[in-house]
Amino acid sequence: MAGSDHVDHLLAQWARERPELDTSRLRIGARLVRLSRYLDRASGDHLAPWDLSEGEHNVLAALRRSGPPYQLTPTELYRSLLVSSGAMTNRLDRLEAAGLLVRTPDPDDRRRTRVGLTDRGREVIDAAIDAHVTALDEMFASLSPEDVDVLEGLLRTVLCDLEARDPDA
User: Fold this and answer.
1) Which of 37, 70, 98, 115 is packed most tightly, with the most Cβ within 10 A?
2) CB environment 152-166: b (16+ within 10 A), e (fewer)
3) What is the pLDDT of residues 40-52, one digit of tens each?
4) Could you tell me if residue 33 is inside a domain?
5) In whole angstroms, what is the distance from residue 164 CA to residue 162 CA?
6) Which residues, 6 or more positions from 59, have their beta carbon under 8 angstroms from its beta carbon?
7) Range of the domain at 95
């Protein structure tokens, strides 16, 4: 088993101050929050060479995952990424100005726009996702493949429950 972490210190303080408090779920939540901060830091570090924010990376990744011709509508993008249409517009404006995507009229519906990756956008997202996967490999290097499978399964269980209770997810 691993040594003590920062959360162990916090839990010891709670145990001293509130010994009756059940911290079993707090142990998980606090570690997930702390891990999220490490993930955010690693994400920022690996996206820096391309001057991308996490949100912009997510837009490019959604387009790349959609498969050829790597196009979605702005509505499809903001719904899949759970952001407001205003936030999506800002991301699209910045990515278009950087030459990573283009907006074109939808040939099937003139009222709609399609957002698509440029060749440069595809190159950038492919390089960025490679860096992202490498950073995660390093971050989780202390876990065996079996541990990775168990942790991933447990996290899926929690997310499936939360998503089932949240119709907007």
Assistant:
1) 115
2) eeeeeeeeeeeeeee
3) 888 888 899 999 9
4) no
5) 5
6) 77, 81, 88, 91, 92, 95, 101
7) 48-141
